[in-house]
Amino acid sequence: MSPGDRRLLPVHAPRGVGMLRGSQTFPDAARTALADTQLRRNLGHATATIRAKRAAVVGEVADWEELREAGRSIKADTMARLDDLLIQLEERVAAAGGVVHWAQDADEANSIVTRLVRAAGADEVVKVKSMATQEIGLNEALADAGIAAYETDLAELIIQLSGDRPSHILVPAIHKNRAEIRALFARTLPGVDPDLTDDPRELAAAARSHLRRRFLSAKVAVSGANFGVAETGTLAVVESEGNGRMCLTLPRTLITVMGIEKVVPTFRDLEVFLQLLPRSSTGERMNPYTSLWTGVHAGDGPEAFHLVLLDNGRTAVLSDEVGRETLHCIRCSACLNVCPVYSRTGGHAYNSVYPGPIGAILTPQLVGIHAAESLPYASTLCGACYEVCPVKINIPEVLVHLRGKVVRHKQAEHSGWRARLDPEAAAMAAMARVFSSRARYERAQRLARLGQAPLARRGPISHLPGGLMSGWTEMRDLKALPQRTFREWWVERDGSRADA
Ligand code: SF4
Question: Which residue has the least CA distance to atom 6 on ligand 1?
Fold first, then answer.
């Protein structure tokens, strides 16, 4: 390695990688993100642009709803017989000359990949953008083993060079603008034109000439997979820049890390997803580069192919009847772009590899509800994500289901005397007592009407006292109780009991 090359060693995101990337809860991290006006401007502009593109190309497809339904039903069928399909995939890949490895968790997957890279005699790999390898913290694990991993997707390269973290599934550098990227390239890419401008074509050309050397020298490539076809043993990667095609064809060894939920039963099923995915993700009619490969072929592409099938919590998700539809996700990121929460806070606030609405339902299920209990609340439940999801994942329903789990988890944690010390648990217990008796409920209403008088002098209550209650009015007003309930009004009007 020449001294000049040293500047190119990948910079990694701060430690704490893996599925969760920090200990901050969503509300705290969101508050910090919302205070960054440049970030909000970048995000607002980028998400609005992708939203408009998606809406235009989806509007062109007369049978879009039928396509979505087809995508949903293929995924539901796949999940119902996932075990058989995975075995079939393994058999087909092996028959085509590939080797299949099963990884129960991130550590196992990382050690398999590390071993394979060493066995290929390499100390560096080129990478195709992959959420699965981010999820397991592969780059960091390889770095610990003395192996450099070079991201080749433009946005991932930007993130890697800046030592930042991705903030979007599809556009990881969505939070950065062109001027910031120009400054980054001028600082980190050796031999870059000193007159480099922030013109996107110039920026892409600078990255291209930097990456070309990597493609030509790498012995090993690591990729994820968008789909794995059980029927044929074919793997598929879709991308927009051609970097994936280079990684998948030039190096002698190809290692693919694929979440087990990415399997589809038949080759024909790709027809549905290859229509749904580009229109939902980049707002394009078809994907610029769709690479399909089946095992190895003499004189054509890699000489060795390894497929690492990653569980890492997915079978636990599969066992939850409501939560399992989360595994239908094809990572298009349409739900992020329409989410009123994501489009203001950005992805970093989620502190999770998977941000936005899909992250809010996937991450807590993969890492355990106790480790990410603020994420199911990172939503207004407006339903925009459900409307755009190409495989019709009912994200709001799963969010509510997970919120129920959070509450039950807290109840279990705060049982007995602890419950009496926890203000929220104590308030809920008191509410339950009040709501369980009509007499108590009506008495509480009369008391609340009296008690609210000093707070509701000018109509809505804009500030509630006390640490717990004031949280409610921090961001919204509370409608004051009316002077008469419906029942009281009815009795007065009718002279009879309301429930008669
Ligand atoms: S949940 Fe649906 S909309 Fe969101 S990334 Fe997954 S497939 Fe796309």
Answer: 329
Share of the chain above pLDDT 90, in %: 73
The amino acid occupying position 264 is V
Other beta carbons within 10 Å of 108: 17
pLDDT in tens, 262-318: 999 999 999 999 999 999 999 999 999 999 999 999 999 999 999 999 999 999 999
Put residue 94 in one of left, alpha, beta given phi > 0 → left and psi -120 to 50 → alpha: alpha
Ligand 1: residue of 69, 72, 335 to mutate (most ligand atoms within 8 A of CB) is 335
Residue 12 has pLDDT above 50, yes or no: no
Among protein residues, the one with the nearest Cα to ligand 1's atom 2 is 389
Q: Give the residue, by CA position, lying nearest to ligand 1 atom 4.
A: 335
Residues with CB under 6 A from ligand 1: 280, 329-335, 358, 388-391, 393
Which percentage of the chain shows pLDDT scores above 70?
Answer: 93
Ligand 1 geometric centre to CA of 304 (Å): 32
How many angstroms does the Cα of residue 133 sit away from the middle of ligand 1? 18
Ligand 1 centroid–CA 309 distance in Å is 21
Bridge-based pairing state of the strands 289-294 and 253-259: unpaired
Return the amino acid letter for 397: E
Q: Residue 7: is its pLDDT beyond 50?
A: no
Which residue type occupies 78?
T
State yes or no: pLDDT of 6 exceeds 50: no
Residues 282, 50: contact at Cβ < 8 Å?
A: yes
Best probe residue, ligand 1, of 170, 171, 391, 399 (max atoms within 8 Å of C-beta): 391
Nearest alpha-carbon partner for 388 in 338, 323, 330, 329: 338
DSSP string, 242-279: SHHHHHHHSSSEEEEEEEGGGEES-GGGHHHHHHHHHH
CA of 258 to the centre of ligand 1 (A): 17
Q: Which of 269, 277, 178, 183 is nearest to 229 (CA)?
A: 269
pLDDT at 495 over 80: no
Least confident of 127-131, 331-335, 423-427: 423-427
CB 326 within 8 A of CB 375: no
